[in-house]
Design brief:
With 385 residues, this protein is α+β, with helices and mostly antiparallel strands. 26% of the residues lie in helices and 27% in strands. Helix 1 crosses helix 4, helix 5 crosses helix 6 and helix 7 runs parallel beside helix 8. The chain is globular, with a radius of gyration of 23 Å.
Length: 385
């Protein structure tokens, strides 16, 4: 069961009014500025809402005025999100969040977390309207009660009220864990190129700052997974032999890449940009504690085209353990995907974005003679400028 099955967005940049069903693997394609990254940013904002970091997230995205739809034909007074999860009990949960401008800032005008339990009206776990927060208190059975503590009006009620039931709390935790990974920094002084202090790390870090610790821990605690990672690297680089972790100081490890064509190992600062980015992606997608939703922007950057078939297989395997949402410009990557893994982002004449799954197009006959990337180039599935 993947975490979220549908999102509805209104009034966010070019996403003036869109609904999209979500699957385990969601690969967004489309022209520059067509709204691919905006979808990832919406999910990131909702994750920040669930973790109590909404104000910081809005600020990092340029402030609320930069997020609200301002197209001439769409005078949106608010930004709204509906996110639906269908848990194991099959009683769907829907989280709704509405944000409005407040001077140069924003306010949360409406918010709710409700669950369809087969009754005439949904069961309300949380409801809030302009700071008036109520939540269901399972202790005294008085249905909706108001908090007896100070609520921060700029952060969501979802992140502040008690966790009364397992399903809504699981919803909140899944949403809060969702992580957006941008293009990895591989500059000369980037963390991924340097020796790193040993620490507990289940993920390689957004900047690769814990990749050494993450891989070392996988090697020590899950030998089969570590061998799988090394086998994947061999699939991409046939001369690759193994990874080693020489100590460089007390509590600090380096990592080396041993290649069968060289008598000496290569340290991280000696590896190419594409090699580093592929190593980071392989580590991330094989990490033991992936978030509920993993968002990756332009994973193809610096990668040789021959690596993209391996990457597509990595996506499929990882989508059994995390819901993947990926934005790409790479037609070569699309070649190795199927229509039910690809979403096209299309810019309409009024400047708004629409999304459409590749499987919604009638492609069976076309795919007998063309690859999916060729059909994209021909405009058969949209997503072009």
């Amino acid at each position: 069961m993947y975490p979220f099955e549908k999102i509805h967005i209104r009034g966010f940049r070019r996403l003036a009014n869109v609904s999209l069903s979500l699957r385990p693997l969601n690969v967004l394609i489309g022209a520059n500025g067509s709204g691919k990254t905006s979808l990832l940013d919406c999910l990131s904002l909702l994750a920040a809402s669930a973790s109590g970091n909404l104000v910081e997230a809005v600020s990092e995205l340029g402030g609320y005025s930069a997020l609200r739809t301002n197209l001439s034909d769409w005078g949106c007074a608010a930004t709204e999100f509906d996110l639906v999860q269908n848990p194991a009990s099959e009683n769907p949960l829907t989280y709704q969040l509405r944000m409005e401008a407040r001077g140069v800032d924003f306010s949360i005008s409406e918010e709710s977390l409700k669950q369809d339990r087969g009754q005439a009206s949904p069961f309300l776990h949380i409801t809030a309207s302009r700071g008036n927060v109520q939540y269901y208190d399972s202790v005294d059975q008085r249905k909706l009660v108001r908090p007896n503590w100070q609520i921060n009006p700029f952060e969501s009620a979802l992140s502040q009220v008690p966790k009364m039931f397992s399903e809504p709390e699981e919803f909140r935790k899944n949403l809060a864990s969702s992580t957006h990974y941008h293009v990895l920094d591989v500059g000369p002084k980037a963390p991924v190129r340097l020796p790193q202090p040993m620490r507990t790390a289940a993920l390689p870090g957004k900047d690769g700052e814990t990749i050494v610790s993450c891989l070392y821990m996988i090697r020590e605690t899950d030998h089969d997974r570590f061998e799988w990672i090394q086998d994947t690297l061999r699939a991409g680089f046939p001369s690759f032999d193994r990874l080693n972790f020489p100590p460089v100081a007390a509590g600090t490890l380096a990592m080396t890449w041993k290649d069968r064509t060289s008598s000496n190992p290569f340290y991280m600062h000696q590896l190419s940009e594409g090699t580093l980015r592929f190593l980071w992606l392989v580590t991330l997608l094989n990490s033991p504690e992936l978030p509920a939703v993993t968002m990756i922007d332009e994973p193809e950057v610096s990668l040789h085209p021959e690596l993209l078939s391996v990457l597509a297989d990595l996506f499929r395997e990882a989508s059994n353990r995390t819901q993947l949402v990926i934005a790409t410009h790479s037609d070569r990557l699309v070649r190795f995907l199927t229509p039910d893994e690809v979403i096209t982002a299309n810019m309409e004449q009024d400047g708004t974005t629409s999304f459409r799954w590749g499987s919604e197009f009638e492609l069976d006959q076309w795919l007998k003679d063309y690859t999916l990337d060729q059909l994209w180039g021909m405009g058969r599935i949209g997503g072009r400028a």
